[in-house]
Backbone:
């Protein structure tokens, strides 16, 4: 039975690597995956999913106005697909997550989403919030803080290394400005050890 999956983590945990490996496994077994990513996620150029370890693959792109159900239905009209893979899933809208859920239910195709759970302010991304509510299964892609504990948060630093506590939720590029931390070290870095 097809399902909607949400694979989440912080920055630099290897989500894109895991996605690309899974898509490769489908292809090696004679099954065709359909890859999508946010149109502005262009570390390796528009329409590519890339991992920091150097592997990449072509992908269709989506924007806030894209109908993901229609994209999947159109792709299915061109031939069978075994699984849909969505990178940068945190950038989807609430409605787009529902479109993916409809694709799973009505088109009988599994959908594997990969994305960040929270931003540098400790707030859920809209797409992630919807996926946490609607996904049939969730899996955490783990990475560690400098202290060795599991990293669940991320800080954004400016050019001088100062930790930022406000600003736009989305910053295109500049992934080197992000550091994954455990909750305690995130609280320490943001100057707020009193948060409940």
Residues:
């Amino acid at each position: 039975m097809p399902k909607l999956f949400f694979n989440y983590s912080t920055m630099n945990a290897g989500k894109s690597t895991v996605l690309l490996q899974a898509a490769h496994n489908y292809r090696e077994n004679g099954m065709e995956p359909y890859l999508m990513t946010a149109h502005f996620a262009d570390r390796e150029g528009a329409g590519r999913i890339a991992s920091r370890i150097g592997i990449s693959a072509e992908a269709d792109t989506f924007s806030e106005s894209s109908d993901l159900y229609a994209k999947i239905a159109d792709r299915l009209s061109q031939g069978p697909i075994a699984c849909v893979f969505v990178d940068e899933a945190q950038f989807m809208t609430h409605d787009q997550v529902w479109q993916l859920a409809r694709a799973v239910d009505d088109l009988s195709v599994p959908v594997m989403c990969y994305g960040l759970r929270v931003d540098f302010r400790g707030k859920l991304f809209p797409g992630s919030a919807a996926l946490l509510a609607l996904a049939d299964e969730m899996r955490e892609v783990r990475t560690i803080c400098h202290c060795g504990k599991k990293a669940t948060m991320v800080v954004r630093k400016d050019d001088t290394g100062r930790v930022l506590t406000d600003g736009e939720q989305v910053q295109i590029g500049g992934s080197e400005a992000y550091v994954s931390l455990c909750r305690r070290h995130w609280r320490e870095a943001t100057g707020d050890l009193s948060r409940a």
